[in-house]
Amino acid sequence: MVLSVLGKFKGSLRRTREQLKSGLERVLRGRARIDDDLFEELGEILISADVGVAASERILDRVKSRVRSNGVDDPGEIPRLLQEEIEEILEAASRRLTAPEKRPPGERPRWERPEAGEGADEVPVTEASMAAKEGTGGPRVMMVVGVNGTGKTTTIGKLAKRYVDEGQRVLVAACDTYRAAAAEQLQIWADRAGVEMVGSHSGADPASVAYDALSSTVARGGDVLLIDTAGRLHTRTPLMEELRKMKRVLARLHPGAPHDTLLVLDATTGQNGLSQCRLFHEALDLTGIVLAKLDGTARGGIVIAAAEELGIPVRYVGTGETIADIAEFDPRSFAAALFSD
Amino acid sequence: MFDDLTEKLGDVFRRLRGYGRLSEKDVRAAMREIRIALLEADVNYRVVKDFIDSVQSEAVGERVTKSVSPGYQVIKIVHDELVSLLGGEGERIGFAASPPTVIMLVGLQGCGKTTLAAKLAHRLKKAGKRPLLVACDTRRPAAREQLAIVADQVPAPVFFGDGTDAVEVAASAVKGAREQGRDLLILDTGGRLHIDDELMDELARMKDAVHPTEICLVADGMTGQDAVQVAKEFDDRLGIDGVILTKLDGDARGGAALSIRAVTGRPIKFVGVGEKVGDLEEFIPERMASRILGLGDVVSLVEKAEAVIDQKEAERLEAKLRKEEFTLDDFLDQLRQMRRIAPLDQVLQMVPGVDRKMLKSAVVDEAALDRFEAIVCSMTREERRRPEILDGSRRKRIAKGSGTTLHDVNNVVKQFMMARKLMKDVTTGKLKVPGLPEFRR
Ligand SMILES: Nc1nc2c(ncn2[C@@H]2O[C@H](COP(=O)(O)OP(=O)(O)O)[C@@H](O)[C@H]2O)c(=O)[nH]1
Ligand SMILES: Nc1nc2c(ncn2[C@@H]2O[C@H](COP(=O)(O)OP(=O)(O)O)[C@@H](O)[C@H]2O)c(=O)[nH]1
Ligand SMILES: [Mg+2]
Ligand SMILES: [Mg+2]
């Protein structure tokens, strides 16, 4: 199982690796010394992978200082050092937040009960919210956010299937009430995954749809609620506020919710991805990134910058348009797949 | 609006003032900053390299003029070069000599094709066309429903066909267009990766079947380094006629525009700036160049400043200052010149010798400037030339005439006297002002 996921992951990163590897080979060929020129060319390789100028410089500075302190003088050592550095950045980010709890199929989840949410939105106290407050049970709520067209709805379909396969009872909420045919699209994914969708008419208040969806999930004893939201550019303050409101409403109804707020990033995104991470994180306290569309030629290096600068971990990668095209993100294999054969 | 780049270039050229020519060393230092700015804007690194090489040789040896600081001059050179690379303004969609015109929209998943189909229909309908949207995305869940909804917003009819074979749908739509009285067809194709052979082949077959008037590559304005690969592959396989960039309503710098233009040589025709049918703008190279450099409209300001503050005038003023002939009239003159370019604090930053960091804290109060102007205008010629003669009764008269208070008038006189003394001291070298280290030559 692990092997096949890894193999798939490696496959999807093959192009990236080939590019980087051939780049590394080109850089190292005929080079006897470690000098500034070498680091300049390495910087170019990182930049061409969308890591960005600032993050690349910091990464290479750290590699340089390791070269100095370890007395490394063989340029052939550099790829390993670079790989370790990137791996460490990605790992440090995911250490910050522990991965979602794994349970045997059928067993009830035991989510801990964090503090009640902020904000002053009035949410009526219902049986569902009482149950959630009193008991230790209740569903795990995951909000999926991001800019337009990155792959949020598709990711929800894939995650729903994944959690169903783990034996969990999953519901999805159609809180994108803006985009044309958003609910119809999600309904198709819900059918594919074999889960129930809670939705509303187009133009409805997304927070109230989320509220209804969480109530039904609790009432039906669901384990996981996946919330699809409308794409929005991170610079649109009122739309970001709408998401904050949704988050508050969820927390009122079910303390601790949403347990996850995942940002879906398009792997082809360049440096703007960092701005996306920054502003979505500022507004919503992200718990992770889903890097979608990694099956193209784009390298998604922006997640290294996001991990390095903001400490946001990558949780999943999307590798295609079918329901199985998702894999858990593993810093080690990501870094390894970038640099090893 | 003045950001990183102008600040950094200001630092690079701090020692260089209005004389001589740009040396290779100065230019090289400046180009390092330009390079970073372009990379941060997501221009492909190879494209950046070529660009820097060509601009660098152009900038070396340029005369440094007195009117605008060297940093801005270099920015102007870079900007102009970017504009010419980004290509001509007002590139339009070409229409077929014998209708219907067929526009095929292609691109990666989620880049904005379906939304754009409606936007184009909306715009061209206004121009008198009778558009028909064609649902050629047979794969994405609810693609047809989505197209139907956005078409309603135009409003424009949609052709669905049998909905199984995309090429088939396109072909029958084109066949039936004339009978339906439609002279413009917009084919909304499914998103696909440029490396997906099977799906790229589908587009090639569609092209052969319908001979589109234009094939437009739709690209997400936030795309990073990969833009060159995507554009090149679509162009190689299909031969694209134009490019449309979407999602430029956020803070993306849009360097992909330059990358795509560089590898395909095809014009960028429109930019998408929102999710609504009306959110489509014409592509303006100047604006895009400024955006990529992160400059706002600095460059047009530079041009205006160059036009307004001419070199001879600057020299005449400096001579006057030295001889203590600088009058309130001159002061007012300067003020008016600058306000024509407006806003003042932005202009001041471009004046040679004015330190940006000092200005950052000094907020220019435009209302105070209005008062200043009114007060000076209420003075006689003699009073403006020799403010020393302004006694109490003259000041009262001026306050009344200008609709200000005696206090305001006193302030203006005091400030002018101080400014004149300060400027004189600086020009004659009696005083060294930290922000103006080399004002005196
Ligand atoms: N190749 C590829 N396409 C994807 C992936 N994830 C999503 N897509 C496609 O990207 C487009 C936008 O996806 P969607 O889920 O509607 O994005 P949303 O607007 O963020 O909800 C659709 O055409 C999806 O099929 C992925 O991992 N790989
Ligand atoms: N902010 C913004 N969103 C856009 C723009 N163009 C398209 N979108 C959004 O991007 C997403 C994907 O657009 P769509 O037309 O479905 O892309 P397609 O998969 O290429 O057909 C949708 O949420 C659109 O509303 C734009 O110019 N600005
Ligand atoms: Mg969606
Ligand atoms: Mg579409």
Automatic annotation (TrEMBL), chain A:
Cited InterPro entries: AAA+_ATPase, P-loop_NTPase, Signal_recog_particl_SRP54_hlx, SR_rcpt_FtsY, SRP/SRP_N, SRP54_GTPase_dom, SRP54_N_sf
Main location per the UniProt record: membrane
A Pfam family: SRP54
Binding site for GTP: G146, V147, N148, G149, T150, G151, K152, T153, D228, T229, A230, G231, R232
Entry's localization field: Cell membrane; Cytoplasm
Chain spans, region Disordered: 95-123
Keywords, in A-Z order: Cell membrane, Cytoplasm, GTP-binding, Hydrolase, Membrane, Nucleotide-binding, Receptor
EC number: 3.6.5.4
Compositionally biased residues, Basic and acidic residues: 98-116
Gene3D superfamilies: P-loop containing nucleotide triphosphate hydrolases (3.40.50.300), Signal recognition particle SRP54, nucleotide-binding domain (1.20.120.140)
Example of a GO cellular component annotation carried by this entry: cytoplasm
Record's catalysed reaction(s): GTP + H2O = GDP + phosphate + H(+)
Top-rank taxon, per record: Bacteria
A GO term, aspect molecular function: GTPase activity
Membrane-topology annotation of the record: Peripheral membrane protein
Domain annotation SRP54-type proteins GTP-binding: ranges: 313-326
One of the GO biological process terms: SRP-dependent cotranslational protein targeting to membrane
NCBIfam families per UniProt: ftsY
Function comment: Involved in targeting and insertion of nascent membrane proteins into the cytoplasmic membrane. Acts as a receptor for the complex formed by the signal recognition particle (SRP) and the ribosome-nascent chain (RNC).
Record note on quaternary structure: Part of the signal recognition particle protein translocation system, which is composed of SRP and FtsY.
Entry similarity comment: Belongs to the GTP-binding SRP family. FtsY subfamily.
Protein name in the entry: Signal recognition particle receptor FtsY
Taxonomic lineage of the native organism: Bacteria, Bacteria division TA06
Gene: ftsY
TrEMBL record, chain B:
EC numbers: 3.6.5.4
An example Gene Ontology biological process: SRP-dependent cotranslational protein targeting to membrane
Alphabetic keyword roster: Coiled coil, Cytoplasm, GTP-binding, Hydrolase, Nucleotide-binding, Ribonucleoprotein, RNA-binding, Signal recognition particle
CDD domains: SRP_G
Locations listed in the record: Cytoplasm
NCBIfam families: ffh
Record's protein name: Signal recognition particle protein
Protein source organism: candidate division TA06 bacterium SM23_40
